[in-house]
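quick q for whoever's on today - can somebody do inverse folding on this one?? i tried earlier but teh output was garbage lol. tokens:
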């Protein structure tokens, strides 16, 4: 059994349960690996358990993508800005800077 070094974005097949999964995060602090199975279920694996697993490194399935259905290019090279639904005018309507001056700071 070869021990694979986990890498974010890599796909593996767990031969014991015959399922494909992608590594979505590695948490060094808690020594866990977050994975997403091909069907979309997300779980975590302890690094000690990872070393005992029978894994085969595989290519990503054709219909894979992350939970936001982005292509590989969009996942890594996106310069899009995510909008939180707050309009710039709504912030100026609050009038936060009206009536405040640096002279007011003691």
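ok took a stab at it. sequence:
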């Amino acid at each position: 059994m070869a021990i694979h070094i986990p890498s974010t974005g890599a796909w593996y097949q767990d031969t014991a349960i015959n399922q494909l999964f992608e590594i979505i995060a590695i948490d060094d602090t808690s020594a866990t690996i977050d994975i997403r199975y091909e069907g979309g279920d997300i779980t975590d694996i302890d690094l000690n358990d990872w070393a005992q697993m029978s894994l085969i490194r595989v290519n990503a399935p054709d219909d894979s993508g992350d939970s936001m259905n982005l292509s590989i290019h969009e996942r890594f090279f996106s310069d899009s800005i995510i909008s939180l639904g707050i309009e710039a005018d709504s912030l100026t309507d609050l009038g936060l800077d009206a009536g405040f001056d640096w002279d007011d700071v003691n």
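fwiw The helical segments are 47-52, 72-77, 88-92. also Residues 78-86 have pLDDT under 50 and may be disordered. so keep that in mind when u check it
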